[in-house]
Amino acid sequence: MAGLTDFASAEYLNYVTGQLVTPALPAIWMGLFTTAPTSDSGVTGAVEVSGGAYARVQIAGTATTNGTTASGNPTLHFASTPTWIVAGMSIRDVTTAASISAATTVLSTTGTTVTMSANAAGAGVGGTDVICFSAFAPPIASSGAEPATISGFSQNTNTSFSFVQSTASWGTVVAFGLFDAVTSGNLRWWDFLGNFAWKPFSCSSASPGTLTAPAHGYSNGDPVVVTAKFDGTTLPTTGGSWAGALTVAGVSADTFTAGVNTTSVGSGMVRKILQQSVPINITVTFGTSSLTLSLA
Questions:
Q1: What's the pLDDT tens digit per position in 70-79?
Q2: What predicted TM-score, i.e. pTM, was given to this entire model?
Q3: Which domains, from first to last, does the chain contain?
Q4: Residue 29 neighbours by CB under 8 Å, 6+ apart
Q5: How far is CA 124 from CA 69, 78, 134, 138, in A?
């Protein structure tokens, strides 16, 4: 389900067990899915948008300075500022970490400069420092007693960005993924659209099965997805399928149905999602804090 893919997990595991040097900072492009991945491979079952002028959007990467920035000055210098760097992106100096504070973001850009939200610190930024830019803010750690009551996450807290205008229908987008190439490449992480948490549920054997998720907050017609991935439980057996987006109906404070006839009891996790239809001549824009990468 949503989260780190097998590729990215294996890469990090090789690093922490001393089998690889620190992986190079990748350039990252965001892609859109009309059908979300169905396994941790990140490939199985996934259908990415195609046609209609669709192209992934770069949301993270690095650039090398070509001039120094003295402590107390907010301007970074480049031979040519990459066009994908936009206001609100987080900034980190990979070469001289102490020179840029953790909460610093991009205020504005020109063809050769980036103005930061805070002045350079310490010894300042060097003339050939590698600077990392990202549309996502530094992650917020999980909080609460184990199991964590609030899962850790990262959002595009300060950054909005747009895809190209569609020249044909892109279908209905339900999820997004982070890739390490503008085409093909490896999917490293993916998540559903919408800033909604996974909630545990139990389900009856009925036609349709009734899901009980205390204080779920859903409304009739809401799209939701279901998984047993996060808690190791067994979903009820059905005459149909739990796959894909389901539609909430029969809402009460703690229960609802999702159109799935069940032939046994069971339990799992449920999450509300957003679905975005993209017809012809539409520019898809993601506003600040509209995308969440959740740790659970």
A1: 999 999 999 9
A2: 0.90
A3: 1-195+276-296 (no CATH), 197-272 (2.40.30)
A4: 56, 57, 58, 59, 178, 179, 180, 181, 182, 185
A5: 6, 15, 21, 21
